[in-house]
Amino acid sequence: MKNSPNFDATPRGNTKPTVITKSRRISFTTLSEESTDSNQMPSRRIKPTPIQGNKAWHNNKIFLDSAQSTTDTHMLVGETSGATDRRGSLTEERELLKQEKAKRLQQGELTRLSASPGGPMTPSKLLERSTSVLEITIADPSSVTHKDKLDVLAELYSSCLKDNLLPNLAVEIYFVVQLMTSRSADVELVSSTGGLDMIDTNFFCSVHNAVYFAVKVLESQVGFLRCLDRCTLRLLSENQRIAVFSETLTDWLILEHDLGPKPVPAFPKSPIGGVSFQAETDNRKNFPNDASFHLFKKQRDTFYELLREWEANHMSSGWSVAAFLGDKIRALVNFKTELANHVHFARLFQSQLITMCKGDGSLKPDGEDEDDALLNQLKRTNPEKFKRLQERFIMPLSVGGPCPAPSFPGCQEFFRDFIMAASSPIFNQHLTDTFSAKVMELNEMSIASQEETQTDQDGSDDEEKDRFVSCLMTVRLVAKFLGFVTFLPYQTGSRISDELGAMYISLRSHSMQIDLTRCLKTAFFLGRLTLTVPWVVEFLSMMDQIAPSLEPIQITLFVLLYLHQQTWGSAEFTNACYANLLVVTNISWLFEVCSFYYLSESEIFM
């Protein structure tokens, strides 16, 4: 054994032990390097074991000839030869991959260009949007083609709008305005339309035709245009395409703008400020003992601290109510307090919701500056000038197209997140009671009739309109949160099976807090649909996926559909009455954003 070449006969007695460090464990000396320390043993390099086998990756029929792929069997004999074969095969496969890719692209291009002209006409975009330059085409009446056919189409389309054959007026008007303001043809035919059937003719093949059709439709919808606000009428009257295609419509729009109705009173978003102390309901006499009274004051202070913290941080990235305020909110609503505390806190929550989200210019935070004081003085001394100045700084913003999805914009987000973070059945029940009482109170508010306001000459007409608009905005806001709290326990992101759905329907058949059908029928006979329909629509927009299958909800939806048809059929839009337009657009929006099945007339009266 001593004669073996692997036997080291060096004496070990005077040799220092080798220190194994972290770097020595993970670092291996290559063959080309020599150790600089003669006292250390050189690292032994492990020779790789040869592996024999069929290389499946080399038998790819896409890149290699079939004959070669079935006969070639590669084996790794040595390290050097294996690396050389691998580099050669990879280079070969890359070249074959490039050739195959180029071949497929060429075949796809030939297939697209060799489409049969007599086949189905499929519009395609000839230019890529990323590389094409958008050119604004000047619409010219002399360049309109198929004018007689466009006149027939415009007449048919206008008749469908008039006879309520289209489900949503707002969507259709939005479509017409899009045609009128189009800048280029979005869809072009690959081949000419010559020799095709009449039904395959593209009558909107140019911007000129689209603008001509849109202006023709607007000319027949003067009853609807009369109900638009002054700002929209002014924008339409200043549109150059309308002026070029129809001078009569432009003159009519200018006249309606000058004689149009006064703008609707604006209610800007109120800054965060505490609700004033209500002596009738918040005094000591309304609490059972002193401890309950002082605890409510502590709840009130904590609530406004949370509100101020949300105002300061809600725009920060990564900040959320549930993550940063969830524990404080749950501690606030889950106090083991008296019934009076729950009722008073629910009222405070509702009052603050109305103050911040409906808007009230009279509520200001503590410590208002000189500018606020000047505005308050202007409001007291010259209300008309203050209102005009206020309206100049308010720009209505609409996002999401003509039918945006239900949402909680602005400060409403705090109250929604507060309810979800609290996750308190007791708090939700008291909110439901408070919201329901407020909705019914506002729904029964007395409204002066149009004849009564017209006979009064002392300016009470404007005051009555302001009061009605304020009531309408408040009841819609409260009804939306009432629907949110009502349907929140049944919200789910997963699909419910038919068996579970049938069980849930039987359990919830008598769970409605408010009889919506009775409210709608009463409003119909009393002529108060303008006030009732909007808040019912807001309430139903919060429905879960099972709610439309409940019998009370289905009856309500059928009544809304009936009101939609009757109101549209009897619609006579005038300067003084917007009730029909308001009812029609609200119900149309609900049917557009919510998918549900409603009962037919034969089923409802069985």
List the helices and strands and how they pair.
Blueprint: H1 22-26, H2 66-71, H3 79-113, H4 147-162, H5 169-180, H6 207-219, H7 222-225, H8 230-237, H9 240-245, H10 247-259, H11 290-313, H12 321-324, H13 326-333, H14 339-358, H15 370-381, H16 383-392, H17 412-422, H18 425-443, H19 450-455, H20 460-487, H21 498-507, H22 516-526, H23 529-540, H24 551-569, H25 579-593, H26 601-604
Question: Summary?
Answer:
With 606 residues, the protein is mainly α. The protein contains 26 helices and no strands.
Q: Would you write up a description of this structure?
A:
The protein has 606 residues and is mainly alpha-helical. The protein has 26 helices and no strands. The longest helix has 35 residues, at 79-113. It starts with 21 loop residues before the first helix and ends with a helix.
The count of strands amounts to: 0
Mean pLDDT across every amino acid position: 74
Largest sheet: none
Task: Supply Rg.
Answer: 38 Å
Poorly predicted runs are: 18-38, 55-83, 112-133, 185-196, 360-369, 597-606
Oligomer: single chain
Overall geometry comes to: globular
The count of helical stretches stands at: 26
Order of helices and strands: HHHHHHHHHHHHHHHHHHHHHHHHHH
Question: Kindly, what is the distance between the CA atoms of the first and last residues, rounded to a whole number of angstroms?
Answer: 107 Å
Briefly note the structural class of the backbone: mainly alpha
Q: Percent of residues in helical segments?
A: 40-55%
Note the beta-strand portion. under 5%
